[in-house]
Amino acid sequence: MTEFDEKYIQCRSGPLTALGIHILQLNLGYQCNMTCKHCHIEAGPHRTELMSMDVINKALSIVEDYNVGTLDLTGGAPELNPHIRYLISEAGKINRHIIVRTNLTIFFEEGMEDLPEFYSGHEVEIVASLPHYTKDTVDKIRGISAFEKSIKALKQLNSLGYGIHPDKKLLNLVYNPMGAFLPSSQKELEEQYKKELQSAFGIQFNRLYTFANMPIGRFKDFLIRSNNLNKYTDKIKSAFNPDTLEDIMCRRLISIGWDGTLYDCDFNQILGLTVDINCPDHIRDFNYGLLAERRIMTDNHCFACTAGQGST
């Protein structure tokens, strides 16, 4: 039993379990046009892992057969998977809600220029990473010109109707802290982002999500180099908030790795922590009944999802 399990059982009568499968999250691959310093996947241009058409077609059959309402596409940069347009088009034919997690700068890579229009045509919900609303901070984390490209991309999305209405063409931003500390109030940060981006660039968006950095991947390497790993781990443990447990992300989704392996979340994927041993661990053997009620596999990194306001 992990330390997180013990903490959970102190608050609830039994172990952390799934509450159905409302979202199928597909990691389309670890390849990315960026090498962000806080990336838990350690994605980058050098990575070659990409989800195959066979796995994608199996995922499409699952969302149709079991009436899973949402497909959540992530990476790396999910757009670098050559099958992403096919996946979105086919999911649209069966009226599934589609979320794409994008870094925005991908729109300026060769062959990707049409993506904003493509997303708009399929009413894809966009969840875009933007570490801050200032140039120096974003470029420090993501590289030179990353902020300029991100602002240009957001303006283009606004021109297509994204971020304007509360219930269609949703444009949500994601904030991660830039160091070994937890994010401040999501509500206050959202208000600040909206004020700064509107006044400086005329940009609108729907919601801002704040996430604590996971002590894995490149961020863990940073914590080790700066001698902050134990300090940060203690910080997320001490910030444990039992009110986050009902809506923690893993309880309503299955994360599918680029090779079809099944996980409780994208973070467990990077750690090689597959679903409970009593469930099939590959998409080819998908069993909705078992997976919808499975025990969630945890470790101490899970404290990051329950710290403060949590990751829901």
Q: Proportion of β residues? A: 5-15%
Briefly, what CATH class?
Alpha Beta
Q: How many helix segments?
A: 11
Mean pLDDT figure: 93
Description:
The protein is α/β, with parallel strands linked by helices and 312 residues long. The protein has a single domain (17-217, 245-297), classed as Aldolase class I (TIM Barrel). Helices cover 34% and strands 12% of the residues. It is built from eleven helices and eight strands. The protein has an eight-stranded mixed β-sheet. Strand 1 (23-27), helix 2 and strand 2 form a beta-alpha-beta unit. The mean pLDDT is 93.
What would you say about this model in short?
This protein has 312 residues and is α/β, with parallel strands linked by helices. Helix content is 34%, strand content 12%. It has helices at 3-11, 53-65, 84-93, 115-121, 135-142, 146-159, 186-201, 217-225, 229-238, 266-271, 288-291; strands spanning 23-27, 70-74, 97-102, 125-129, 171-175, 207-210, 253-256, 262-263.
